[in-house]
Structure formats: C-alpha cells, structure tokens
Amino acid sequence: MASPVLTDHNVPHVSTIPANKGETIKLFVRERNGTPAGEPRRPVLMLHGRSVPGMVGFDLQYKQYGWAEKLAKAKFDVFIMELQGSGRSTRPMMGDSRNVSPAQQGLLSPNPNAMPYTGSPLYTSQLNNSQSDWDEVETVVDFILTTTGAMELDLIGWSAASQQLGPYTIKNPAKVRSLFLLAPIFPPKGRASAPGTDFDAPVALPVSLPAAAFGFPMTVSTKDSLEATWDKELHCPEQREAGMVDVVWKAIMENDGVGVNWGGAQAGQPTGLSRVRNSYWWGWNSTTVPLHGRLGNDVPVCIVYGAHDSIVNTSPDLGLLYFSVPELYKAIPGPQKLMFRIACAGHQMPWEREAQLIHRMSEHWLKNGKIEGATTGSYDRDEDGALTPLD
Known about the structure:
Layout: E1 5-14, E2 24-33, E3 43-47, H1 54-58, H2 67-73, E4 77-81, E5 128-129, H3 130-148, E6 153-158, H4 162-171, E7 176-182, E8 218-221, H5 223-231, H6 244-254, E9 274-277, E10 279-280, E11 301-306, H7 325-331, E12 337-342, H8 355-368, E13 377-381, E14 387-389
Parallel strand pairs: 3-4, 3-6, 5-10, 6-7, 7-11, 11-12, 12-13
Antiparallel strand pairs: 1-2, 2-4, 8-9, 13-14
C-alpha cells in the first residue's frame, strides 16, 4: 500500500483559558492518513499527557517508535493534537521566563536571565484547567469528524490525557467509538467538579482557584530530571534502548522553540528546558467515572500500564496525588473493559522495548475490540506474553 499521507493542521479555536479568553488561537494537529483510496476514513485521535508534547509521545521519528505512523500503516486516519501550552500549539503566558515557578527560577540564570529573577510571576495563576482542555478536545474532535466525514472516532490517550479524554467521553459518548488509555493518571479522591459547580454544569471562566497553590502558569523540566525519573523504573535488562534519553530530549527540544534557549550553567550555551503548563484539573475520580453508566457500556475502554510504573500508582495517603490504575478499572461501570499490566515496562513505555507491543495491542483493539482473544477482564502479561487474570 501507499505510504500514509502526512498533513499538519493549525485548527482555530476560541480560547477559554483565562489568560487569553476569547482570543482565536491555533491548536496544532498532525494527521497521518493511511486510508486506502476509495475507502471510508476511520479516524483516531491521540492526546498527550502533562509534560511531553504529542509529537514526541506518538510521532517519534526514530527507528520503529512512531506509534501514530504504525497505526496509519494499519489503514487508520490518525490525528495527534496538542493542547494550548504544549508543543506547537499556542502557549499563552509561557514566552517570558519570569512566569516560571518561583522555585525554579535558579534554572534560568544565566540563560535567558543574566541575573536571577526574584520577583513574583508576571501572571499569577495556573494556565489551563479541565474545562479549557475539554473545550479544546471538542474543537479538534469536531474538526476531525467534519474533515473525515465520520460520525465517531477512537480516542487514545497517554498519562494525564485520561483527565481530558475520560470526562469528554462521558459527556459525548455518541462521538466516541472506543477509548484506549496508556498509563492513565487517575486520582480516586480527585476533585469531582470545578469550584461551585457540579460535573455536568457548564463552567463560567475564569474559575476562582486557590492562588497560593496555582500562582504561576508553567514549570520547566530538564534532561537530567527526565533521565532520573525514567531510571527509577528500569528493572529489566534492555528495558530501555541505549541512547533513548538523548533521542527523546532532542525531540522535546525540537518542539519547544523557546525552551531550547533556556537553562545551562554557561552564558550563551543553553542546554534547554522543557516548558510545562501548570494545570488545575477536576471531573475525573471514583464518583465521576461511573456517571450515566457510559464507560464500558456505550463506549468500550481498554487500559494498559507498565508493572514498574511508579507515576500512575502511588500511596493512598497522598490525597489528590493518590493515583491508581486498578481503581480506574474498578470504577468503570460497564462490562466492556479490558486492562493489562505489562511486565518490564514503566511510564515511558512508548520509548521502551515494549513500544512495539503497545502498537500491536492498540491496533488489535481498534480493529477487533479485543486483545489476545480477550474482550473483558484484567490481566498481568509476563515477559513471555503469558496472561494471568487479575480480577
């Protein structure tokens, strides 16, 4: 078959982020269309997590790590979107280094700040919130359905993307054919709704939020922090290919034209910092997941996570930062749900040796609604591929 056709879109969107509310901004969307000529298009939307741009997570152009390209070659029309504040989409209030978290200002001297900045951020609030994220997903979903002529699409999310795609699906089940979540962030005790509202109520923005905790629009991350966090989850030989930290960091910097000039100990020799939007999220917890009985009934759900993923499974003592993938599986009300725990894999699975497994599992899910013969249930998958029920 012919190679998938690559098209980059800048989808216009009227922003509901308080920082630029009402302005028309651009949401970057990459399309890899593998639909054979004359056949109906089967759209798939992939959404990134909190800190890694979609182009790096799903379209890493290195060896066989390109997840979106793999699905496009399986005849899907694949779209990768980036929310405001990430990757190549509009980044309001993120161009000035003085808006970085005050605790991280030391990382910005001498690049780009000749002198350390000790003042308060110029914009003293978080950047985005759940409602603004859901609004952006809705704009892109409607763009995709209009572009492809399809009535529904499949959603794939990695990490914190679950906090956008899960609630969006509950609110818009007629537009979603299936939901595939890799290493989903799920706080069982998380905020159920925006301050002063309920889950199903429209939210008037800007929302009044606790300023002390959310008094800046962005944080930054370093290559060293990426490597250190990743190293903690390496527990098997060759779990991560040699040189992958360098490959991933280079891709992150290629998608951050401002952050690439920040950081480093020598003036004029920046090592690069990745700008990460500071978020305030709600609507994704043990109370909201079962709402209206839609997940696992109207929309089938598949969950995959690594056995060594220390980010998505944390201590119940952490309150809002208590995350649990098994609790998400339990909270989904319908029977059309699958969950797999993958041996020798961590949170960065799309860049580890099991990346090809994730490609295959998502393809089988999209094509058949089942994986390795299973349509429902939770399983542990060992290094040899054997499945043991977890239920």
